[in-house]
Write a sequence for this structure.
């Protein structure tokens, strides 16, 4: 048998991605909640001189899919030569259902009995030899965490066998009952502090205290860490070291040269303004590195910890009741939480939602009122200067828009919000190595994806400016921007840049001489008028043409109305 | 005594007797290990018509209120 394509398949959250990264060395997202992987990723592995492709497939409970992520998984099955069925050893009974379905499918299967390291303290003993006999395919105990058993898994992959079995669903359950009775012994488990924390997270009262502590603690931490990094590291670096260099360069180039315009940008009152000069080496570096990075870093550090601990599903359950009013169920907090970091992974995570209606509402709410961390960072930096009240006001307005729009959509879109049905994984102590690795992945993605687009945005604005296109656009949009929203028509470039990078766009408001009310209005408008194009295209791919057109119309209606209302209020 | 899952007290356990839902709901619940004859423990319920947290096979599952209304459990006393 030649091995070309190996699939890693199993229930959600059993450690497929962890094993994948062990097998191939590729970096993928690993988190302690079901539905972390929603798109397959592939890598290469070495087996006896061959180099088969390994595919990390989204988790699925059965071969009858119930959401888009599971659909992806079931479709992949046809393409594989061998399936490594990853099974959670601490949850054998439920996991074996998919195993037997996979055996029925006629694909060669080898079972990785993962989470093996976790069985002992839970008081679970499994006779792997006997399990192997009863299933008729190789069974290898593994740990995606430490890597134990991975070598044996690779060595035995050629032993993977196809079965010719056929079962009805009832027969499957019956057989599973027999198998577990034969191979598994459960004894008393040791209770750990984490177990107790699990109880506190779901019992009445204490769950609210924990949730409040997590939410308030997160805000506090992100703000404190972000501000600290800026005032201790990045501002001294830019003001003390970079600025003098740029001033020299500015004199050297001469304020009127084209190169000066591109690299340094426009001088404000004869000096460089990092937020507004719009040069590649000034604004282009300052906004992403000194304003945004510290907050994005703090946010993802914290999100990583919460993800690895396994808090997010508990938050989802807590939010379920509220989310139903918006036509969603609690698990929609996952795409929203990811969206608070960056809307692109947030939009992808919509795949964990089961129904089209729910996805449509969640996509709309995210596109309109979930600001990404890059944008939030600049809002904190800019609006925060005017006082905490204004800062809170911006987020309060965004939250209100989300609620009102959710309630309206829930009433207007045909159908009902589906019920949550969610496996709550055990808490796992976040490991330093894994958390750092994940943070590193997200940070390098930030720099490789954000910086080029920041440069592109700044370049385009300069180009349009010199071609006088901006003046024309200013004239066209003046009735809306000035007439309805009470903002200067010079906001046009910010609205344009916002299609590429919201952070730079919000930063540009700083140079318009806005009063407090206008600044709040401007920041809200930039948040809601349109998602950045990267998000737009992902949403387009996920939702399709018709839905995206509807969402776009909703966005335009929302921004027109909200801008006008805010103009009347402030 | 046969009661709905939503009527169980936190800490109360019983055997799943019946799931009165369509095929879709049955399959999804089965995927989570919740099917006729299984022992189910109610851990807690959430405010108002919130989800019901249960434990089956040492695994915790949150079930939306509407879905939990269709699950009937045989409890003693
Ligand atoms: N103790 C222990 N934890 C593990 C092991 N393998 C994975 N984990 C943890 O289990 C959680 C889930 O791991 P993932 O690799 O993201 O699981 P997955 O199967 O890819 O999950 P989905 O993509 O959501 O289907 C993470 O918190 C991992 O750190 C293992 O062998 N032992
Ligand atoms: Mg995964």
């Amino acid at each position: 048998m030649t091995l070309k394509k190996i699939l890693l398949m199993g229930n959600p959250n059993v450690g497929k991605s962890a094993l994948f990264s062990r097998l191939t060395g590729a970096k993928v997202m690993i988190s302690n909640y079901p539905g972390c992987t929603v798109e397959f990723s592939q890598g290469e592995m070495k087996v006896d001189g061959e180099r088969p492709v390994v595919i990390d497939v989204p988790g699925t409970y059965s071969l009858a899919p119930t959401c888009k992520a599971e659909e992806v998984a079931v479709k992949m099955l046809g393409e594989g030569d061998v399936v490594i069925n990853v099974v959670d050893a601490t949850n054998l009974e439920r996991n074996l259902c998919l195993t037997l379905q996979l055996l029925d499918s006629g694909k060669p299967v080898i079972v990785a009995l993962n989470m093996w390291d976790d069985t002992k303290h839970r008081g679970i003993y499994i006779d792997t030899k006997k399990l192997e006999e009863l299933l008729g395919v190789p069974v290898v105990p593994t740990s995606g965490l430490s890597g134990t058993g991975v070598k044996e898994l690779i060595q035995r992959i050629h032993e993977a066998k196809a079965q010719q079995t056929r079962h009805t669903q009832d027969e499957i359950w019956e057989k599973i009952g027999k198998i577990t009775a034969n191979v598994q012994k459960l004894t008393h488990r040791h209770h750990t502090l984490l177990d107790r924390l699990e109880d506190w997270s779901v019992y009445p009262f204490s769950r609210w205290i924990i949730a409040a502590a997590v939410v308030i603690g997160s805000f506090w931490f992100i703000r404190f860490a972000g501000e600290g990094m800026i005032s201790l590291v990045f501002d001294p670096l830019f003001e003390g070291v970079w600025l003098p260099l740029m001033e020299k360069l500015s004199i050297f180039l001469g304020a009127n040269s084209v190169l000066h315009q591109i690299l340094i940008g426009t001088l404000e009152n004869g000096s460089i303004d990092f937020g507004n000069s719009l040069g590649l080496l000034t604004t282009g570096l300052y906004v992403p590195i000194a304003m945004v990075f510290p907050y994005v870093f703090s946010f993802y550090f914290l999100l990583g910890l919460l993800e690895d601990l396994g808090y997010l599903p508990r938050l989802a359950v807590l939010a379920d009741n509220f989310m139903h009013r918006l036509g969603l169920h609690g698990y929609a907090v996952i795409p929203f939480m990811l969206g608070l970091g960056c809307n692109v992974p947030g939009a992808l995570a919509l795949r964990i939602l089961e129904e089209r209606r729910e996805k449509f509402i969640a996509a709309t709410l995210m596109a309109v009122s979930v600001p990404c961390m890059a944008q939030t960072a600049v809002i904190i930096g800019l609006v925060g200067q005017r006082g905490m009240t204004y800062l809170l006001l911006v987020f309060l307005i965004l939250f209100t828009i989300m609620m009102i729009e959710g309630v309206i959509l829930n009433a207007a879109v045909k159908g009902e919000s589906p019920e949550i049905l969610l496996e709550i994984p055990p808490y796992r102590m976040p490991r330093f190595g894994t958390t750092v690795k994940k943070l590193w992945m997200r940070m390098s993605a930030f720099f490789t994806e954000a910086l080029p687009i920041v440069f592109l945005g700044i370049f385009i604005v300069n180009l349009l400016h010199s071609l006088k296109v901006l003046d024309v656009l200013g004239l066209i949009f003046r009735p809306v921007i000035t007439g309805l929203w009470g903002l200067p028509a010079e906001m046009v470039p910010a609205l344009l840049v916002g299609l590429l990078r919201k952070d730079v766009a919000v930063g540009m408001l700083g140079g318009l001489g806005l009063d407090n009310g206008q600044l709040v209005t401007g920041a809200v408008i930039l948040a809601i008028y349109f998602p950045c194009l990267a998000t737009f295209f992902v949403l387009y791919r996920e939702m399709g043409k018709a839905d995206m057109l509807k969402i776009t119309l909703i966005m335009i209606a929302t921004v027109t109305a909200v801008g006008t209302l805010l103009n009347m209020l402030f | 005594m046969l009661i709905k899952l939503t009527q169980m007290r936190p800490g109360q356990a019983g055997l799943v007797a019946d799931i009165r839902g369509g095929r879709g709901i049955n399959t999804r619940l089965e995927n989570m290990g919740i099917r006729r004859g299984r022992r189910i423990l109610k851990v807690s319920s959430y405010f108002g018509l919130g989800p019901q947290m249960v434990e089956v096979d040492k695994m915790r599952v949150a079930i939306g209120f509407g879905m939990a209304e269709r699950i009937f459990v045989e409890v003693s006393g």
Observations:
- Helices of chain B lie at 23-31, 65-68.
- The first strand of chain B starts at residue 2 and ends at 4.
